[in-house]
Design brief:
With 142 residues, chain A is an alpha+beta fold. Chain A is built from 3 helices and 5 strands, in the order E-H-H-H-E-E-E-E. Chain A has helices at 25-35, 45-50, 60-75; strands at residues 15-23, 81-88, 101-112, 117-126, 129-140. Chain A is elongated, with a radius of gyration of 16 Å. Chain B has a 5-stranded antiparallel sheet with strand order 1-3-4-5-2, with helices on one face. The chains are: A alpha+beta (142), B alpha+beta (151). Chains A and B meet through helix 1, helix 3 and strand 2 of A and helix 1, helix 3 and strand 2 of B.
């Protein structure tokens, strides 16, 4: 159980590989079933609009999962993730079309901590808007 | 109606044990579009030293929600679900969740405060094995829009 990235190989500002995630309506149905959150605003456009949303929106936890994937892909061993946190700022709006929504996640090392830990800052945007704020992960590097 | 800060510190009885299934982990990993072999392939997980497939970090929400929903549905809290949005989420891990884990969750209301007319409710869910080993701690901030009284 060890990260594939060594603490000695990173410094403040080291970038994680940026990833773009496509989010379609079918992905929301799939995520609802996998996580057990069947809130209608994630699959029913009529009700989403009735409560004042522009359209169906993605589960915030799905966006957090995408942000976390950027970290686990980078570090190799998911057990190296010690902490992860996000603030949900704007919803990811998912239209009923073939393109769906797109979520881009960037990360960079923000702080070197004691005991081989580093703090990674994450940024997630969709349609030009920041959808996660104060998003971070603490990971233990080799 | 504003949420009552007197409920800060209230804890709820441990949830029934949740048995983490290998196929559930694979289903969850596929649903988040993550094809990392350690989430799908037993041999890949064992090569990293785990007994079975590892759950993606945010899988903890599946287990934590089962306990924190007990808190959110506390009649004394009087939360109006139609006004609720997920504000923040944090997880602190002792180790990853692995298929075969039997997990028990204890929820506590950690904080209630108002900001800009909204009530902010922080719940903490401690996820432990049935043998009492802490696996992770999940903190959620739930925003109840427009329920806080005038300052």
């Amino acid at each position: 159980m060890a990260a594939s990235i060594a603490r000695a190989d990173v410094s403040v500002g080291t970038q994680l590989p940026t990833r773009t995630f496509a989010v379609h309506r079918a992905d929301l149905v799939s995520y609802a079933g996998a996580c057990g959150d069947f809130n209608v605003i994630h699959w029913n456009e009529r009700i989403a609009r009735a409560v004042g949303l522009p359209d169906v929106i993605a589960h915030g936890m799905l966006t957090m999962a995408h942000a976390t994937t950027v970290v686990t892909d980078w570090v190799g061993d998911p057990g190296a993730v010690v902490e992860v946190g996000v603030r949900f700022t704007r919803p990811v709006v998912v239209p009923d079309d073939d393109a769906g929504a797109s979520v881009e996640v960037e990360g960079k090392v923000a702080e070197l901590l004691p005991e081989g830990l580093v703090r990674v800052e994450l940024r997630a945007t969709s349609a030009g808007a920041t959808v996660l704020a104060r998003a971070f992960a603490v990971v233990r590097l080799a | 109606m504003a949420l009552d800060p007197a409920l800060i510190g209230r804890s709820y009885p441990p949830s029934p044990a949740y048995l983490v299934g290998r196929e559930k982990i694979r289903e969850f990993a596929s649903a988040i579009g993550d094809d990392n072999p350690v989430f799908h392939d037993v041999a890949a997980a064992q090569a990293l030293g785990y007994a079975d497939v590892v759950a993606p970090p945010t899988f903890a929400i599946v287990v934590a929600t089962k306990a924190s929903s007990t808190a959110l549905q506390d009649p004394e809290l009087g939360l109006d679900y139609s006004r609720v949005v997920h504000g923040e989420q944090q997880f602190a891990y002792e180790r990853p969740i692995v298929a075969g884990d039997s997990l028990v969750v204890t929820a506590v209301i950690e904080d209630i405060r108002s900001a800009a007319g909204n009530d902010l409710l922080t719940t903490r869910a401690d996820v432990a094995t049935s043998q009492g080993e802490l696996v992770c701690t999940a903190r959620s901030v739930i925003v109840s829009r427009g329920t806080a009284g005038p300052a």
